[in-house]
Amino acid sequence: MSSPSSHDNAPFIHRLADCQSTAIGPGSKVWQFTVVLPGARIGANCNINSHCFVENDVTIGDDVTVKCGNYLWDGITLEDKVFVGPNVTFSNDRYPRSKQYPEAFDRTVVKKGASIGAGAVILPGLVIGAGALIGAGAVVVKDVPPNSVVRGDYARNVYLAKKS
What we know:
mainly beta, 0% helix, Hexapep_transf_CS, acyltransferase, membrane, Trans_hexapeptide_repeat, repeat
């Protein structure tokens, strides 16, 4: 384990984290009380805050921030430069039942540069477009176009932002 100010750019894993994955990129940080299962892949320069859970079939790109209290279930991909605010709720099964599992979990993809505000709910199997912004507390039930801003219950397109 290295310190967060280490010059060797190795990943920093807090001593109170349960990080079972070895696929963590240089410069990334995994903070206390976070569990990362062995199949998870985390890119370079990521910040996975405290009290998070990252399941096996999860891919996190480079320069991603995952704030406190997030659970990333099997089937979730966060592309490069994604921001996930505190306590966002992701789901990977549209029809969950106790002890009944689908053949494959729905895949959710958050495209490059998208941001998700605190407490948003993201239903399974959606694509959040590149550069999109999800407002805090939004309930997202359908795909979000690139560079758009959605908010509310249910999230709806407010406007299409200019590409940068």
